[in-house]
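Researcher: Here's a chain I'd like modeled. Treat it as a single chain, no partners, no ligands.
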Amino acid sequence: MTAPGKAQAQEQGPLDEEQLIDSRPRNAMNRSGHRQASVFNSLAGCHLHHPIPLVLKLLMLTLFAGILVAILAQVSNIPSRQEYEQDQSQQKQVYQELAQMKDRMSNLCRPCSWDWTFFQGKCYFFSKSQRNWHDSVTACKEAGAQLVIVESAEEQSFLQHISKSKGRSWIGLSDLNKEGAWHWVDGSPLSSSLKKYWNPGEPNSSGEEDCAEYKGDGWNDSICSHKKFWICKRSASSCPRE
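Model: Modeled as a single isolated chain. Structure tokens:
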């Protein structure tokens, strides 16, 4: 007589075996899936936690490299002691040459001062400001000169050309002492050979015009109190021959 349990096992044997066969892969798959999930989670944890320190390390390394490059660049720009001494020597040489040049320039003989113009043995000053005729006479005297006296056709052409480009300018000619009797500032009378330099119709003595000026292409008589440019004249310095 068969035991009830054994009979039941025999009756259910095929099904249980099939179920056992079917259940094994599922359990194995469940256990494998669980392991894969655990591995995946651990890997995911690694990927979540480790990138931040790595990025920081890369940033710190880049920053350090930049600082190092900057330091090396600064160090490379610092001249060596030999280069510094050479530079100092060159500067000293330049200063010595400039000093020597200054001495040579000061010893140069110039017939006229720097702001005066040389022409045929005379020095001429063309003012940059304007004064009346009397103040112009005084300004020239203070400079050791005279308000210009014209003595030749060449001098007249030279002065007329500059005055025409610069502006109306006083000359040392007037009839203040006697109407119609024109004299230079040194007291000498106007020669007949120079009277041709008056502009047409001049001098007309209109409105007490007692002082002469350069105007346009010739001379003009004008009111002495008017302000104009002026021209001084003095002898040029003689330079010693070597």
